[in-house]
Task: structure prediction
Amino acid sequence: MTRQVRLAIMTGAGGVGKTTLSVNLGYEIARRNKKVAIFDLDPQGSINVACRLNKMPAARKTTAWIYSGFFGGEYSLTPVWEDNVNNLSVFQGGSPLFKIMPMLAQQEGILALRKALETYPLKEDLIIFDCPATLETLPRTALAAATHLLIPLVPDPKAIDGTRVLIDWYLKSCEEMDLNPKPEILGFVINNVEKGAEHQRLTDAIIPRYEERGWQVFGPIRHYTSFVNAWSEAVPLRVHRTTHPALPALEEIRDEVIGRMK
Amino acid sequence: MGRRKKVNVDDFFAEVDQTSEVHTLRSEVQTLKDQETELRAQIEKLKAEQSNPEDVEQEIQRLREHLLESQGKVKFPISKIKRNENQPRQSFTEEVEAMKLSLQQEGQLQPVILFEDGTLFDGECRWRAAPELDWETLDAVFMAQLDPKELRRKAYLTSLHRKGLNALDKAEALIAIAGDHIEALNPLEVPKIINRVIMRLKRNNSALPSNLQTQPKEVQEKHIRQSLQDSQEIELFLLYLGLQEHPATLNRNVFPALKLSSILKQSVRKQGLGCPQALLLNRLDPEIQRQGIEAVLKGQLSIAQTKKWIKDQNKQEGKPKFSIVEANTITEDDKEQIVREATNLKALNLEAWQNLEVIAKVKQVQRLLQEIKELT
Result:
């Protein structure tokens, strides 16, 4: 019997490779014969690009439907990358999410995602919530529903401070929503590290500091142009290049997540 | 060209630590409160069910132990204890007599349990018996003692909210904390000690690094132990650094607020007068201070506007209201002269300065310079 992991991928700053991480981690875990669904909670709907999905799905077919008040368990899961795996699917996000934001002003709305998954449970071993980079209501719904958190960041002052704000927000939100137990912070992923000295210095500085505080750090993962290429081809990194140097870090996260399913 | 200073990640992590600490503290308080609520509910239930008094007593004992463990007991003035009007029992004579004897012979074995406002929850016999023995206080524990105020105080220590504290509250909290934590230290001496040490370090060209408060504890210890000898000074500096307060900043911006006149203090507390403005007004005659407070509050004057208001007052009155102002303008020549004189003094060796009178004057100059810095 495996336990469902609901992993919210959140950041305190944009452009840190959140969606890249979501889809590739989802893919890596699906390859291990686990059933994985990725919920795109981002109004940008970047996953539609990453997996080359229809960019204008009907509102009913998106994650916005969960918050609509009409949801009755209709998870529109679209299988992706079927040539390579057969148990990975995406619940698309996109602009309909803008429309339901006002509904999230109330506690009821904030708990909608969690309620949905409790009332209409999914069989998936892993559900990934790909959250927008803003710390407002949508990520809050994910926080309420998640069992774990994964936080990617780039080693620059903006993202490091954004991550500090995120931690504050996480603690405060858990307290306000009375989440007991709190979703566990699975770890931080140091991502998109460039060769410049300042990126290196900050990477070296932050890793031990997270670790001293009992948090796991994955990576650092360098910045590779092949990320862009994989996006352009709309394929997983491993398909783009079987021996890509970023894969070991992804595998490390993969194993950690699978470990939480037991 | 000096190199620009790069971001120090310890600043970010110091804030992360503060935040986490406050939240941990909050949840600890919550847990304690939950336990307490549960125990109280159990007692209410037993009482309502008219259970065996021994069971009720046992349950009260558990609550007492819980409270003792979570917060400890205090000596509370009997005059401030209020009887619980809901107490069903009205006659006490015998028990009180027995209790009197017990208190006399064995002292108070169990603390009374009080609500936050001093109302008795348990211990009426002790409360009635004690004054007959001329006792003035009773050992007490409080229920729901960690009220929001207390939480705020604790939150200050670790604090997210200290940014919202004005310098005066901050200064008072900080010296009180020092009094709590450092034995044989008169809290009122704290500002002096800090000032003395900061000045000494400056004199010896060994001022503390400006970001020391955000450094790890070991780094702080190393620095302080290298720079200071006196154990009380060391303790005090480490205490404040541990609260992520830099002593030099406290000395410059926070502790001066303690010197405010009482009307200014009151205005800061009750009327929301800004501390920087209050410090400016503090140099004026009490009568003018009153007018100043009114002007600042009414016009919501900024620091610069407050300075201007003071200057205008001086013009109107025809004579300066604070002694250091001799003329209404400072010329380029004045500035030149001050800098020149100071530079001349720099040439003297340190020994020439070690004369009591000189030291006193220098101190005065330092203070004045500090004040000028704050005003400009």
Q: What stands out?
A: The first helix of chain B runs from residue 9 to 48. The interface with chain A takes residues 6-7, 9-10, 12-13, 15-17, 19-20, 23, 26-27 of chain B (CB under 8 Å). The first strand of chain B starts at residue 74 and ends at 77. Strands of chain B lie at 74-77, 112-114, 120-122, 137-142.
